[in-house]
Design a protein that fits this description.
The chain is built from two helices and seven strands, in the order βββββββαα. With 136 residues, the chain is an alpha+beta fold. Helix 1 runs antiparallel to helix 2. Bound molecules: adenosine-5'-triphosphate (ATP).
Length: 136
């Protein structure tokens, strides 16, 4: 039987995940990584993207994550993120609207502007949410 590891995913607004899992995969800034129980401790920033984990029954679960950090300990992974939600909670039409808004702002803003950088981040969030919601 596989030994489990605790996964906590928290944002300033809510606790998104708090459960025992078999494995966690996450989009580190230096590349994707996986954590099983007994992993060497480390800390990394995350890219906007998807946390994938296997629950205790071996079912894959997907969580959108934006602007986060992960701390891995031998028996626990903690992810602190600006925003995060389960795939089933992604509102597709909201993400589509956010994408349209961001594209419009990108057209209007000058490259290098604060507005341009913010719009690019908003576009990244929207595209990642849409892609994740469409994953089967
Ligand atoms: P929007 O412009 O639609 O608010 P955003 O990318 O600016 O999108 P965030 O700042 O990443 O939103 O998130 C704010 C809060 O709204 C978080 O709690 C996040 O989980 C939630 N959220 C944002 N977009 C969606 C979505 N498409 N579906 C479900 N929850 C969302």
């Amino acid at each position: 039987m596989t030994e489990n590891i605790r996964l906590e995913i928290v944002t300033p607004a809510k606790k998104v995940v708090s459960e025992d899992v078999q494995i966690v995969m996450a989009p580190g800034v230096l590349g994707e990584f996986g954590v099983l129980v007994g992993h060497t401790p480390f800390l990394t920033a995350l890219k906007t993207g998807a946390i994938i984990y296997k629950d205790v029954d071996g079912k894959e679960r997907y969580i959108f994550v934006n602007d986060g950090f992960a701390e891995a300990l031998p028996d626990k992974v903690t992810i602190l993120a600006e925003s995060a939600e389960r795939r089933r909670d992604i509102d597709m039409s909201r993400a589509e609207k956010a994408k349209e808004r961001a594209l419009k702002r990108l057209e209007d803003a000058e490259k290098g502007d604060i507005d341009f950088i913010r719009a690019k981040s908003a576009l990244q969030r929207a595209i990642n949410r849409i892609n994740l919601a469409q994953t089967r």
